[in-house]
Design goal:
Low-confidence stretches: 1-7
Order of helices and strands: EEHHEEEEH
Mean pLDDT: 87
Structural class: alpha+beta
Number of helices: 3
Strand content: 15-25%
Largest sheet: 2 strands, antiparallel
Length: 154
Amino acid sequence: MASSRGQQVVRTGDLEKMSLEQLKAVKEQADVEVNLLQDSLNNIRTATGRLEIASTALQDLSLRPQGKKMLVPLTASLYVPGTLDDADKVLVDIGTGYFVEKTMAEGKDYCERKISLLKSNFDQLIEVASNKKKLADEVGVILQAKLKQLSPSS
């Protein structure tokens, strides 16, 4: 196995030379990594969806007139009545409980940049997950072939 920036690259020829225990370990490791990558992909999908909803909400908010009565969400299921005071200033959640006041345009730009970054990361993770899945499949095939060779033929 050769190492490339922290990731292990395994060639098919190397796999065929490995013992059953080594193949099982490589297969298990690849399966664990694929599952972790799938979890990361799901988290990115969720975050992207939330940012898209926030961007849409900013667009909707920018169209409302000052003094407009509305319901303000405190949680996903709790809303309180409020009045729109200044639609040009918004609070943007930048993570870990920190909020920054921005103009409406800056808030929209922030959402769009984050969505773009997440989509780029998503595409990169798809490629890595696909490669790991291929590796796990190759190891599985070789492992099955070796097990078939070891078992007595009927």
